[in-house]
User: Fold this.
Amino acid sequence: MKDTKKITPRPNYGIIGILMVGAFIAFLNNTLLNIALPSIMSDLRIGPSTVQWMTTGYMLVNGILIPTTAYLIQKYSVRRLFLVAMGLFTIGTIIAGSAEIFPLLLAGRMIQASGSAIMMPLLMNVMLISFPVEKRGAAMGVFGLILMAAPAIGPTLSGWIVEHYNWRALFHFVTPIAASVFILGFFFLKDKKEKVNLKLDTFSLLLSSVGFGGILYGFSSAGSKGWSNPFVYGTIIIGVISLVSFIIRQSKQKSPMLNFSIFKFPMFALSSTITMVITMAMFSGMLLLPIYVQEIRGITPLDAGLMMLPGALVMAFMSPITGRLFDKFGGKVLAISGLIITVVTTYYFSQLTMETTYNYLVVLHAIRMFGMSMIMMPVSTNGLNQLPARFYPHGTAMNNTLNQVSGAIGTGLLVSIMSTRSETHAATMFQDAMKSLTIQPTDAAIEEMEQVIGMQAMLQGINDVFFISTFIAGVALVLAFFIKRASPAEEPEPIEDQSKGDIIVPKLAER
Assistant:
């Protein structure tokens, strides 16, 4: 009982609240950009394969930095990590808001990501050590409610700002809020941290960066360069070799930067696999729906944001309910129910037409988000529940890393499929159209025909991607049947205590 009290001290809700506000701002900024992507494409004169780097570049930095967060959480105090993370996020927001060219915008976005990469694992780790297993579902549900409020207001707010001002105003809106949160953290965030004698293995950091970075960059580049490009498959191969070397090196170290032995716990391994698969499928809706409604259907940014608002509100409303249901019934029933809904709604999204009604899109998206609300948090929490307390930093870092990797792979894969299929459909449609003509059309007529065919071909490409996403979600559904309710496992081996204490993560001080 003594050990349990040490591992789960009385929660300090003030500290948790500040951390949640910081995470909320970081998450809000991510959802703000989804609706703005078509406006950025138009203003900076770039295509979908280039603008996707606003998402994949963010994930690339996260994928490189998140593996180090297990080390950082053990080494430094919550206060120091929060201030560094929030400071980087604020600086990146200022740079992005003043950018006149895409490379500078992307640089600001990636600096934002370096702060966000620290923020989410830090908050998750504090939540895990602050609440016992039997109350963790409800706590994570409240955590999910706060974070789901970001996608609830993000698209609508983004649509209104883009329609009345400029996409740069999105960053100008976030800057003063982020700066205020930084100041609050500076004055009010305090925690006790015993000195920990840990050293960062720089060679492991290099292998991790090249490994995760190479894989992320390769898949992200596939959308614009094509899979046959040597640069694409070359970086993926280099990334895989580096990642394998990183895993081998970590398995031989007493104090690994990222502990891969956590995959010996079956429920954690299963939950990581399910969340990776469903993340790949989820990005089809996040990335392609704004392009469909604005580029193909001509719906305004504000209406596009309003279209996604009910779904986000449903997800936010369901989060605390799902948390309590998880505490009562476990993750299996929730995951299976949510995945069935997700598979069915994703299939219906593969049947979009030029005449699909606005209300139909609103309702279908809301139902899809209802299904999603029963998957991610319950599955992840169930997996983390099986880990002993000393593995919490590694578990949260691993989950966040794999989500970034799967998100980038999913984005790169789906965008490249959309581009390839759109080109194939366009070529076929153009040939059929030319064959049906009895007279030679003028250049103006051909140009107009190409524009119409281009829109129809892009629509077919988007439908193809949603159809493939249906099968991806189906894989996660099959895996969900193997979920079992998890509880903390016994230590597989004696703990070599390096911090001269029982708790690796800092104990949060009462104020």
User: Anything to note?
Assistant: The first helix runs from residue 2 to 7. The mean pLDDT is 78.
